[in-house]
Backbone:
């Protein structure tokens, strides 16, 4: 009987260790973020804060698109900052896409630096 108990204990310990290692192997989800400039002029100092990080661009020309592939975590809330050629700043806070981020979001910058964020792939 002790051998059987020992064998059961070893199997249970192995299963527990395997489960713990599998649980620690969690990776954050990835998503595409596009910034599309349709403002009619170049935009400067673009900064995008996303759940889990941020990225920036010094310059994005008119009718150009910049794409980032990033890992995200937490609620899907974005903040964007940018400036036009004259240095006029535009800050957009609290663009909320819910608890779970979609696979792809596009931020379209229109005239007067108006920003429209849309889910392009859920």
Residues:
């Amino acid at each position: 009987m002790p051998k059987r108990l020992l064998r059961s204990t070893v199997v249970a310990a192995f299963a527990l260790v395997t489960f713990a290692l599998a649980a620690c192997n969690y990776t954050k989800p990835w998503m595409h973020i596009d910034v599309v400039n349709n403002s009619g002029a170049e935009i400067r100092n673009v900064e995008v804060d996303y759940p889990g990080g941020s990225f920036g661009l010094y310059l994005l020309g008119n009718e150009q698109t910049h794409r980032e592939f990033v890992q995200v975590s937490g609620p899907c809330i974005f903040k964007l900052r940018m400036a036009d050629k004259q240095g006029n700043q535009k800050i957009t806070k609290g663009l909320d896409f819910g608890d779970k981020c979609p696979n792809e979001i596009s931020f379209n910058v229109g005239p007067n630096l108006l920003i429209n964020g849309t889910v392009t792939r859920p």
DSSP finds one helix and eight strands in the chain. The chain has a mean pLDDT of 87.
